[in-house]
Amino acid sequence: MAKPFSKKERETFFERLKQQMPEPKTELVYSNPFTLLIAVVLSAQSTDKGVNKATAALFRVADAPEMMVRLGEEGLIAHIRTIGLFRTKAKNAIALSRILIAEHDGKVPRGRAALEALPGVGRKTANVILNVAFGEPVIAVDTHIFRVANRTGLAPGKTPLAVERRLASAVPEKYRLHAHHWLILHGRYTCVARKPKCPVCVVRDLCRYTEKTLATQEAGAAARGRSESRQA
């Protein structure tokens, strides 16, 4: 088992991510808590890019629960059929819009229990809303964050909930608000699944996944060597 990160290493880890991305933000396009909620529900098993493409026109005609209900399932499907599981997502989006109108005065609730009671909203989605819309220092563990937490050794765990709980204690307090986005963007663009880009990683010396890190760095060095030989 890899040696746990020390307090100083955890501070350094997030300080470097902060320097690289001072003001990290979600890549989903939204205009208010409701459109963010819909975008996150639609993003399950889909890319942010694909969701943004679909919601660009959707949110011009339905950016509030009442408008979404008037649009109806078939009207919504016409906008999101390029997204995976679009029929189930459309059903959930209309259902949660009705609940927001009936139980929350048409507003997205700020409580976790109320959010998770909405159709199509689980813990991860609730955490995104709490963090992005309401500024709560929580972390929504998706596949990227799960991979980064385990691969680096920062907060290893066998389940997303286990990783979330470890991150809650591993992330220094002053970095907690933006930790979600630093980790997800690091996993999306640097600590990628198949071939992590270790040579350009700002936390490579702290990462506990030594074998893969070194192998990738050696491959990068070999490639540079071949290039220099061809130029000589």
Please state the CA-atom Rg, rounded to the nearest Å: 20 Å
Query: Beta-strand percentage?
Result: under 5%
Q: Please trace the helix and strand order, writing H or E for each element.
A: HHHHHHHHHHH
How many domains comprise the coordinates?
A: 2
Biggest sheet architecture? none
CATH class of the largest domain: Mainly Alpha
**Ends apart, CA distance between termini:** 44 Å
The total strand number stands at 0
Based on the coordinates given, report the CATH architecture of the largest domain.
Orthogonal Bundle
Give a verbal description of the structure.
The structure is a single chain. The protein is mostly helical and 232 residues long. The protein has 2 domains: 1-23 and 137-218, Endonuclease Iii, domain 2; 33-133, Hypothetical protein, domain 2 (Endonuclease III, domain 1). It contains 11 helices and no strands. Helix 2 (33-42) runs antiparallel to helix 7 (123-133) and helix 3 packs across helix 4 (65-80). It starts with 6 loop residues before the first helix and ends with a helix.
Task: Give a short synopsis of this structure.
With about 230 residues, the protein is mostly helical. The protein contains eleven helices and no strands. The chain folds into two domains: about 1-25 and about 135-220, Helix-hairpin-Helix base-excision DNA repair enzymes (C-terminal) (Endonuclease Iii, domain 2); about 35-135, Endonuclease III, domain 1.
